[in-house]
Amino acid sequence: MTFSIVFFTIKSFSQGYRLEIINGDSILFFDMPAVVIKPGIKKLPKFKNKKEVIKYNRLTRYVKKVYPYAQLASQKLKECEEEIKRDPESRKKAMRKVEKALRKRYGSALKKLTVKQGKLLLLLIDRQTGLTTFELVQELRGSFNASMYQGIAVLFGHSLKLNYEPNGKDWMIEDIIRKIEYGII
Fold first, then answer.
1. Cα–Cα distance between 51 and 22 in angstroms, integer?
2. How far apart are CA 34 and CA 20, in angstroms?
3. What CA–CA distance (Å, rounded) separates 79 from 81?
4. Which has the least CB within 10 A, 79, 96, 116, 157?
């Protein structure tokens, strides 16, 4: 038994379409864009009650508002670290320069954040930089200032030492951020 397969293109129709004759049969082929499968992304997680849905929707609005600031903080921290690597003696000067620029550009917007949005921003900064806000302040301003800011935060019932836990208590935030990054929301 001998089999022979004949492949040849008769004509390219429009972009991405072609007709081929294989073993005497005409077969239409067309190219499709690649499909990217993103694990763990659902449109909306399952909730037990209406309160959780409301909480998730509110959290989505808050994350969409403060996530760009966390990304900016991460970016500026990297820029500052690069400048310090080039000239280690200009550490304080570089830090003040970045802080002054950030205050001038975003100070008024950050002052308008609610307490919940501010707390969320601290968590997202930890997510983006890998450092808690306390550790960042300690690195940039020193231990004394970090302790003072932590003391003030504790007086108001908060902490600068919040750790971001994407697989734990902060799963909703992580779900929302993934959806933002993949362009779903």
1. 60
2. 22
3. 5
4. 157
Asked if 74 contacts 98 with a C-beta cutoff of 8 angstroms, the reply is no
Predicted TM-score (pTM) of the model is 0.69
Instruction: Give the integer Cα–Cα distance in Å for 120 and 63.
Output: 7
Neighbours of 70 (CB within 10 A): 21
CA atoms of 132 and 46, how far apart (whole Å): 30
**Contact (CB, 8 A) for 160 and 149:** yes
Written as six digits, the tokens of 88 are 């280690």
pLDDT of res. 99: 76
Of the CA atoms within 13 Å of residue 83, those in its CB half-sphere come to 15
Q: What amino acid occupies position 183? A: G
User: Residues 35-94: pLDDT tens digits?
Assistant: 666 665 556 678 889 999 999 999 999 999 999 998 988 888 888 888 778 877 777 777
HSE-CB of 95 using CA atoms within 13 angstroms: 12
Beta strands in 9-150 (DSSP E): 9-12, 17-22, 25-30
Higher-scoring residue by pLDDT: 11, 38: 38
